[in-house]
Specification:
52% of the residues lie in helices and 15% in strands. The protein contains 13 helices and eight strands. A hairpin with a 2-residue loop joins strand 1 and strand 2. It binds uridine-5'-diphosphate. The site of uridine-5'-diphosphate (UDP) has 13 residues, from helix 9. Uridine-5'-diphosphate (UDP) binds next to helix 9.
């Protein structure tokens, strides 16, 4: 049997072939260490966006760990020989890491969501994981001028793990710029995960998740997302074109 690759390229974006256990373990190591490490939950829309936006592309390339967030990326990665059992979502990582952070007394900070959501999510997580140290929480509707001050506040809070739910690509770009100043060992963009913690946007029932239909559940609940979800057919088309090009001896998308 050939050895499974540690990472694969999906339309020019690096995807690290890790499952949720390994992603959690690596992130804990980052949190304990003193070199800031950014983690990205790589989704289909992000891969498509990275093709148009060089800054975003560079951010994804520079991140310490890119995990597979969507069924589209999972499908593409498997076609590239990756052995990944399942998606690794921001919402699941948030829960796993809070459980581990509670045991190791690693303080966390939640940044993002509508006013009040991050604070409520922090309270819920602290109830769920006794011993969890919440260094702070702030909403995600702040003016650009406040970003640097916010990073200083996070640094003063002593947080080791920074969860940022500003939506993509804003959260990844924010982390690329401010993670070092925040003093946290690890930072990750988690999209709408705080909304899920407080039950504002429930996750799809487990059956839907198992059938890889979470995207359809979200589309039915939030029909305004249809335009964003066009990224999936766009992604599949780009991928197939890329494969045909490669099979004809051309170069894959850089
Ligand atoms: N959000 C925010 N500030 C903004 C725009 C969005 O904090 O300026 C939050 C929003 O409240 C939501 C999250 O970012 O909690 C985006 O969630 P979404 O489900 O769209 O994330 P994605 O699908 O991009 O992962």
């Amino acid at each position: 049997m050939t050895e499974a690759p540690a990472s694969v390229e999906v339309l020019g974006c690096r995807l690290d072939c890790v499952d949720i256990d390994e992603a959690t373990a690596r992130m804990l190591a980052f949190a304990r260490g003193n070199r800031p490490a950014q983690v990205v939950t790589l989704g289909t829309e992000m891969v498509v966006a990275a093709r148009r936006d060089p800054t975003f592309r560079a951010t994804l390339a520079a991140s310490a760990l890119n995990v597979c967030d969507t069924v589209g990326v999972l499908w593409a990665a498997r076609r590239r020989g990756a052995r990944i059992a399942a998606r690794v979502t921001g919402a699941e990582l948030l829960e796993r890491l809070c459980a581990a952070a509670a045991k190791e007394a690693l303080p966390i900070y939640l940044l993002g969501g509508a006013p009040g959501v991050a604070i409520e999510a922090a309270q819920r997580l602290a109830e769920r994981y006794p011993g969890l140290r919440v260094a702070g929480a702030a909403d995600g509707y702040f003016p650009a001028e406040r970003a640097a001050t916010l990073a200083e506040e996070i640094a003063r809070s002593g947080a080791r793990m920074l969860f940022v739910g500003l939506g993509s690509p804003r959260q990844e770009l924010w982390l690329a710029e401010y993670l070092a100043a925040s003093g946290a060992g690890v930072g990750i963009g988690v999209g709408g995960a705080f909304d899920a913690v407080v039950g504002r946007v429930p996750r799809a029932p487990e059956r839907w998740q198992r059938l890889n239909l979470e995207w359809l559940y979200r589309l039915l609940r939030e029909p305004h997302r249809w335009r964003r979800q066009l990224a999936l057919p766009h992604f599949v088309a780009l991928l197939l074109i890329d494969e045909v090009r490669a099979s004809l001896g051309g170069r894959r998308t850089p």
